[in-house]
Amino acid sequence: MTDVLARPEPALRRPLDGPDDRRDHDLDAAQDPAPGALEAADAWVRAHVADGLWLAPTVVVAALVGVLGLGRAPGRAPGEGAAALAAWSLVAPAGSAPTADVAGAAGSVLGTPLLAAWATLTGALARHDDTVTALREASLAATLVAVVLLFALARRVGLSRPAAAGAGLLLAVPPLALVAHRTVHGDVLATPWLVAALLLATARRPLVGAVGAPAALAVAALVAQPPVPLPLLAAPLVVVLLVRSAPAGARHLVAAVATTGLVLVVAVVGVLVVAPSRPGVLPSSPATAAALLGGLWSLDPVLLAAGTAATLTATAVRRLRPWALTLLGVVAVAALVAAPLAEAREAGAGTGAATLALALPLLALVLAGVTDAAARSLRTTYDTARDLRGSWLVLVAVALVAAVPLAGASLRGLLVPDADDAATGERTRAAQAWVLATVRGGATVAADDAVRTDLARAGVPGATLVPLADAARADVVVVPAGVTDGPAAVGVRVATFGTGDDAVVVRRVPPAADGAGSDATGGTTPDPAAAERSRVARATAGAELARNPRLVLEGDSRGLLESGRVDARIVVALAVQLTATDVTVGAFPAVEGEAADGGAGDVRRQLLVTAVGGARTTAGAGYSVGTRWLRGLDGLTATADVRSTDAGLLATFSPDEPAGLLPGVTGADRAGG
């Protein structure tokens, strides 16, 4: 089979070997020499127009697939938050950026400035409150550039236009590729630079390639995610392409120039990337590699199975062998070295698919190249060749049919995330909104890097935002979904967004190991006995208030008031207002995320007033009187917010229920679980 696949069709001019023949690299252009400059220009235009007609829809499909669900799926990983924090720190006002976690502080040498430039120059931060989503735009843009360059590289090395377009789609559309390229990661940003280096290595002018290819590879290595500069693994392939592309008389010079340049590149990258990162000892790399590949297999078994078969086939073909060996090297180092280091460092945690981003263009080119070679060879006169290569095409057809049900579900989940996936981001944003509305200025908040970046952008002082690793010394902790230990065991829960392991939880850390005391939200450390005394005191006052004929209670308002589950400030504010006029209460709504289960922590601090003095509060006199009353409350009963809703006026009080406002109320029960 080696001889069969290695035998090129006479018209192909050594596919995937570089343009040895300098007359014309376009395989579909006319083979007869042009009689004049006009005819040559016409042939050049027709060839490139034909390329454009295949490239344009490829880029459009890649862009549409990349945009759909960009901010919702996949869920943002800790490594993305570290990248977002590092990028925003470069453009944030002095003193407003949180301090980076030491475990995740190492950013990409050039990747982080590129992310910062994209965020500011394109207005991405203005378009998105979520910093990670804003920076995912940069990853998508890098992918689209890589698709264009990969198409050009595929044409340069001998693939037909359909095969080149197929390589571009393989780079952008499969579920594995989509997850990788939607991740804020240095290797994703480095992908177009790697493809550019390979494209320059096949340049028509040997010295241009000998200088340009190492330079592009250097940029790729500096943009790539530290501490493992994966683009450098393509250096041998760059040398092979340069030598094969150069005329026979210039090959020694080209090889010398390229090798010198690559040695300098390795030295510079080693000083700027590897040494400062101090990678240390690999933590159980075989287990991490197995877990990574297992997860990727469940995500996209079709691409991995077809790519494995094509790569193994390509290793037996001389002209494909350098590409296949480079691909195997990148995958091996990414799985055995880069992935374990990423999981051990917050700067790369949860970004497994993106670790293989630099292998995807090589995989796409090898898979498209083997398929294209098999398709072209069907015109050969050798029966054995026809049978063997026809068998490969049958396998490709079977893989495409299998891809519909196997990859379809994964792809659909990425393009149109289900309710649970979409809700994950909403829960995080709701928790951030709760912190912004509730936590007092100067309180220390522990959260992951993504949340800290968004809170800092919203105006929270960076000095008060600390990493989750420092949760024990924080006043408030925002626990991400899926975290069940460490920060999740600190303090007491005060707000929950979602259910089960998918919930985002806000916890309050007591200021001391024992006793009750003041905390970040202004309340006190929960004490069960004090909480029960407060509930009884509120219930007594509430039951007396409910008997007032001037008070109309709708829905479950009466039950909440008489059971002691309404904040003492609301009870006092209603009692005072009822001495002057009638009041209709539509509800005592629970603040989103706070307990609403009837437990000790279920104390309502919102009041919905639907009528005052018999007039509806949605407009007119009722609105004016109600607004003046609620916004005029001051001192211990002052409101934190008053807004108009379709049902009436909604007043929200801060979590710090004052002790002693009602006899027996201690203010020590603003927590749950």
UniProtKB/TrEMBL annotation:
Keywords: Membrane, Transmembrane, Transmembrane helix. Residues 10-28 have a biased composition (Basic and acidic residues). Coiled coil: none annotated. The chain crosses the membrane at residues 52-70, 106-126, 138-157, 163-181, 193-222, 228-246, 253-275, 287-311, 323-342, 348-370, 391-411. Signal peptide: none annotated. The keyword Cell membrane does not apply. Residues 512-529 have a biased composition (Low complexity). The keyword Phosphoprotein does not apply. This is Glycosyltransferase RgtA/B/C/D-like domain-containing protein. It comes from Cellulomonas marina.
